[in-house]
Give the backbone structure.
Amino acid sequence: MNEKTPAPPKVAGSLSASSGTPRGSFQVTDSSLIPGDSATISAWNIAFFGAIALLIALPVFRPTPFREILAFVPDGLTATFTVTICSIVLALIFGLLAGLGRIARTTIVNRIATVYVEVVRGIPLLVQLFYIYYALGPLLHLNGLMSAITALSVCYGAYLAEIFRAGIQSIPKGQMEAALALGMSRSQALWRVILPQTVKVILPPIGNEFIALLKDSSLVSILAVSDLLRRGREYASTTFNYLEAYTVVALIYLIMTLFFSRLVGIMEERLRTHGRKHH
Amino acid sequence: MAESIIRIKQAKKSFGRVQALRGVDLEVARGEVILIVGPSGSGKSTLLRSVNRLESLTSGEIWVEDDCVTSPHADIRKIREEVGMVFQSFNLFPHLSVTENIALSPTIVRKESAAVTYERAKVLLDRVGLADKAHAYPEQLSGGQQQRVAIARALAMQPKIMLFDEPTSALDPEMIKEVLDVMLDLAKEGMTMLVVSHEMGFARAAADRVIFMDDGMVVEQGSPEQVFSSPKEDRTRRFLEHIL
């Protein structure tokens, strides 16, 4: 279900159509070749407002069991967001370090970063979760939540590393040369010249990774973490209202991911026009 | 002639099997303006980029004043502070304003105060005729304006030597003059300049010496008059026929 393709940047499932495609070196896109904004926005509108309308209509027209479900399930949002936000922050740190490692000129650093990325991308996330929770958890005294955050941040760190690497490499070579020629050290050039330009290129794909991570956080329900999906399952298993419970869970995920994908789209649009608006 | 500020001894450079430089010797006097011409692939850019070690030589030595650029123990950053460089593609930092472009390196490399570096940026912008563009961003400038900012940026480090790598090759014809004028001023003020360019007009007006390179070697050198009007070597003559 949440099996991930190794190549970054991943598009967030079917959402990519509404959020546009990541810009920069990652994908060759020509804005005139993809459907116009009006088409994608209206598709997004149908999905987003449809989901919200459904989520409001269901408890209104069928109070039992939907009121009960809506009272019970959203508690899981705390765990879902805790896992997602902690994981993305840690993953950004791992990703930046590994991404810099991937372009480092020191062989040993480069090797370590590359092996990390290759190994992690080659193992399904679910297997990594089980490995950290069941195999390493007892040794490291990790509870479900900590295991989940560790696994997700290690895994997404590897994906983000590739985004950072590609983003840095998309900056023309002349920028580094100009900085060095002015007497800057490599790290000064990196922090003051290269990375500020990279941020602009990688924000949209990082936004998409965030959405993917939000969805993948549902995997942690297996590790006894009471996230959105687990709350739904707990409710369903006591009342046998599977269809109703999972419908609500799916709608909540859908609304969240559509919301964030729109945010990424707007951000992308801003970045594209930014700089031409200085006057 | 005054003492040499740059000494290049038997510079050789290979890129894989391609030999870009096959043993170049060159001494540049303080204040001298040298134009390097030659067909594409003759090694002139490689030679220029070796002076501040954007390219590392395969063998040979380059000295800038008392520092050996090619030594592995060289403090290359200190040398680069003394050697300004202007690129064919300008390479301004697009995320920074014109003033920030100029002030960045003195601020973070020399740790000079922002007040000092911004003031110097203002003076330099005035000098290259762009005082009104202080707050513009590179993409709002024409190619000629960008290149003049790039020159100001290099000058902000107060270098003793300026390297110009085809500074007008990426420019539309009507913008070439504004860049050459800035370079002419610089030459008149006594800056040591190494210029890879085919601008004959600039050579005649400002160059003390023209060097013709072909196939990784210096084929001929002399005053602009001598090299352009009465070249000794066949290869020089054939090349000049192409570009004149």
